[in-house]
């Protein structure tokens, strides 16, 4: 008789084969999508409308300028933007026309006149006011003059002030800014810094690398001077400017956004075929195998370890086609695989482009620096983007796409208007915070079309001195981080690929660790929630009062939350009503306002 075949010997291998097949299908296509909800809602329309008619703020500060000072206009523009963002009311007075009068109406004065000889003997009006309790910030670096020599000791200068030294970096000695202690910022060209020494009781915050004072404060009589000698006033120094201004007062609070978000551009997108020399050198894999088995698992590891919220930006094709027909990309395998896993790990998807050609037309000037093709017509650009929208809907039919990131941070005004008119479901538009040439530069704000602008600040994995400086300034100005990376950074020598992905990954993790150690209260948010935080920031206004031992922050147009950075000096014991305080660094704290009125009462 033949041997009986056990049923288990037949069934169990079939079950095993079925499980393996199911696993391979999941591995190839990604698992079932579970979209994580957002933590914030968009503001009701009446809050936006109310913000368009903000009341005039109490005039806390006087800015003194002069049309006779050749650089005062630069520093005037800087401090006006900074104070507007900090919700500080101010008056601007041209000394050459109005003189110095009425200082007692203000809490602070910002001087943007570098040449004190313009004042003549009227400069004593400022020093006398400080001696009686006033607070003066010299923002525009003072130039040598007899008047400066007369007042130099009062503002903290003990010697020098008649010549300059040339500097290529600054060294921050204190934590007067978030993340600033022991930070060195380098640049290429020599910059003139007033050659001085300070009196012993001046508090020095910043020097050149050789030790020449750059930023300090000095108590004088009942008041205080804050003096800056660094001749820089631009977007990358707004946090520095605001932190220096905040040194004038023992207690000072200003509104911030409080958000951190990470973008992955060109993801998901078609994966390049074949090999890359650096991936082959280090991993002996194809590009697709590297993305699936090395790069993306590493990115997921960072997301889970540090609770990051990725926003992937979809590119349908890698072509330079700008004329119809706009063919559909046929293979959804990698799109589904990477998209599913990103969404299942708390991420978000947004639009990047049908291809990587920015939405600009033939009148746009690329300055001969890139090979991008302009769109020949409005209809061609519209139809290509419509194809992207349809393609994204096929990937995830019930998903709400609301974020657009411009390819290479490039977008024309006409391109933006096209998006506004043709694709109104896009609520969030992302360009760059600082531009080099032709990029689409933004502020963190609601734009004239009602779209929320969330510009990206830093990118890649080669964090130079400027990138770190820019981020540190934004931590102090808006308390925000916006970062982006591309999968093909690991393939491109210009982005550091020759160093290898292991080094690039380590650089990225070091950046994330520094960010979270420096600003542990910074919220990890999706790009949509970050946009909603920007919306709240851009629609509020602030009133501040200090009465004896109580400091009150009143948030106008408060909806459900507001955040402030506050400098507290002279008291380490307090109680808080209407919110909570979390220490960040030195004298700086984060205020989480859970009510429209926050009261901080000092116990000593």
Describe this structure in words.
The chain has 604 residues and is of the alpha/beta class. It has three domains: 59-249, 3-Layer(aba) Sandwich (Rossmann fold), CATH 3.40.50; 259-534, Alpha-Beta Barrel (TIM Barrel); 540-602, no CATH class. The protein has a nine-stranded mixed β-sheet with strand order 2-1-3-4-9-8-7-5-6, sandwiched between helices. Helix 1 packs across helix 10 (333-344). The longest helix is centred in the first third of the chain and has 23 residues, at 7-29. The radius of gyration is 28 Å and the shape is globular. The chain starts with 6 loop residues before the first helix and ends with a strand. Residues 1-5 and 16-30 have low confidence and may be disordered.
Strand and helix map with partners:
Elements: H1 7-29, H2 45-51, E1 59-65, H3 72-85, E2 89-94, H4 95-98, E3 108-111, H5 123-131, E4 135-138, H6 146-151, E5 157-172, E6 184-198, E7 203-208, E8 213-220, E9 223-228, H7 238-246, E10 251-256, E11 259-264, H8 277-283, H9 287-306, E12 310-315, H10 333-344, E13 348-353, H11 378-395, E14 403-405, H12 413-422, E15 428-430, E16 445-446, E17 452-453, E18 458-459, H13 465-477, E19 480-485, H14 501-518, H15 527-538, E20 541-547, E21 550-556, E22 562-568, E23 574-577, E24 579-585, E25 588-593, E26 597-602
Parallel strand pairs: 1-2, 1-3, 3-4, 4-9, 11-12, 11-19, 12-13, 14-15, 15-17, 18-19
Antiparallel strand pairs: 5-6, 5-7, 7-8, 8-9, 10-22, 16-17, 20-21, 21-26, 22-25, 23-26, 24-25
Helix pairs in contact: 1-10, 3-7, 7-13, 9-14
